[in-house]
Design a protein that fits this description.
This protein is α/β, with parallel strands linked by helices and about 400 residues long. It contains 11 helices and 13 strands. The strands form 3 sheets. The protein has a 7-stranded mixed β-sheet with strand order 5-7-6-10-11-12-13, with helices on both faces. Strands 1-2-3-4 form a 4-stranded antiparallel β-sheet, with no helix packed on it. It is elongated and about 70 Å long.
């Protein structure tokens, strides 16, 4: 589909006696190496192509992705039977994406989330155990990717599409601001005039769009997200680190446009705030600061090991609503305490609001470093405000 070259005429080909199987392309194209997703897309596309909901039912799509694919490759596999190769996939039948359990096969083809796969065997050897790679050190592999990423340069990176607002000509500072789950870069555009910044020296606001991806907690629906949310307490480390790399590419692009790292602020709301913390605290060069709004510290157990010495004293502005039903205040407070225990300068604010942004919070952000708020040179960083500081919420569009 990424090439826009049409929909395969599966029903006509099968009627003509052509053997058809399903496989996956590489992760560098539009695929995620999931044969289950290929089953789903094959079935749905045939229904759309013919405007007929009965075309290529789930049973046939499942067969094409198992015995059909194996037969075309000359592999004695695809089903569980004596003499067959022990190529097996274990699925957690209790996973929410497989409920209600009215028809297991249809649930697998049409609804199952990749997170439901727990174990994989190839020729009888385990390659995935409890959703962890069994033949590779995943963390070591990801560390190799992260270390190689800066050398690739932003042109070779997956640079996100962004919206940009400049407060004046020739910006000398940049604020990269990440939105929350299900929103997009437009979400925080209206905040720029509300901050009351002077026109000179100018600042460039960069509002990136997160990639579209299935989100488990929302039934696998595709939406803009910085990483997956499962709802069971597990963190999507791979997705978090992938978004970290994407934000690193945005920082590199700002550097290439003449903005010094020390004049770059990472800001974010909810998921976006988590990525701001994840990236800023690990970035190799000194940044100006971090704005973490209605969020939490992701992958806290790895921070001590991965923290950048250049940003050990990085000022951090954290703000949270006392009535937040999405990310409880207690979770944000634990993140604050974890950062302080590692020696970070955290300025903490609480507001009487839900999972959103309020007028007083915006005013506090705009007044961080008078008379030069646009650089957000957080000179007050390190002074931790006592919990309980409250503000009345005002109507706000920022609620993602």
């Amino acid at each position: 589909m990424i090439l826009g070259d049409g929909i395969t005429r599966i029903t006509e080909l099968r009627a003509a006696g052509v053997r058809i199987g399903l496989g996956t392309d590489g992760g560098c194209t539009n695929n995620r190496l999931s044969v289950f997703e290929e089953m789903r897309m094959a079935a749905l596309l045939q229904k759309v192509r013919h405007l007929d909901g009965t075309r290529l039912p789930a049973e046939e799509a499942f067969a094409m992705g198992t015995t059909g694919g194996a037969a075309l490759l000359g592999i004695d596999a695809g089903d569980i039977a004596p003499g067959r190769a022990a190529d097996l996939v274990a699925v957690d039948l209790a996973h929410p994406s497989l409920h209600p359990p009215t028809n297991l096969l249809k649930n697998v083809v049409y609804a199952m989330s990749p997170q439901a796969v727990t174990d994989v065997w190839v020729h009888g050897s385990p390659v995935v155990r409890a959703q962890k790679l069994a033949t590779l050190d995943q963390e070591a592999l990801m560390e190799r990717v992260r270390s190689a990423h800066p050398r690739l340069g932003p042109r070779m990176s997956d640079v996100l599409e962004t919206i940009e607002i400049e407060t004046g000509p020739s910006p000398r500072a940049a604020i990269i601001w990440m939105h929350g789950l299900g929103a997009d870069g437009h979400d925080f555009e209206p905040i720029v005039p509300e901050l009351g910044m002077p026109t000179a020296p100018a600042v460039r606001f960069v509002f990136p769009h997160a990639p579209l991806q299935p989100v488990t907690i929302n039934g696998g629906v595709r939406m803009r997200a910085w990483y997956d949310v499962t709802g069971d307490g597990r963190q999507d480390a791979t997705g978090i680190r992938a978004s970290q790399a994407r934000v690193e590419a945005l920082i590199a692009r700002e550097r290439a446009r003449g903005i010094a790292p020390g004049a770059i602020v990472l800001a974010g709301f909810s998921q976006g705030g988590a990525i701001a913390l994840q990236t800023g605290l690990r970035h190799a060069e000194r940044l100006a600061g971090i704005l973490a709004l209605s969020t939490y510290l992701p992958l806290p157990d790895t921070l001590k090991r991965e923290a950048s010495p250049a940003n050990r004293d990085l000022p951090i502005f954290m703000a949270h609503g006392t009535q937040d039903p999405v990310i409880p205040l207690s979770r944000a407070a634990r993140s604050r305490d974890a950062l302080i225990s590692l020696g970070y300068a955290v300025e903490w604010h609480e507001y009487a609001m839900p999972h959103s942004v309020c007028a007083e919070e915006i005013a506090d952000i705009g007044a961080l470093a008078p008379p030069h708020p646009l650089l957000l040179d957080l000179t007050r960083g390190g002074r931790v405000l006592s919990p309980g500081r409250a503000a009345q919420p005002a109507a706000s569009p920022y609620s993602s």
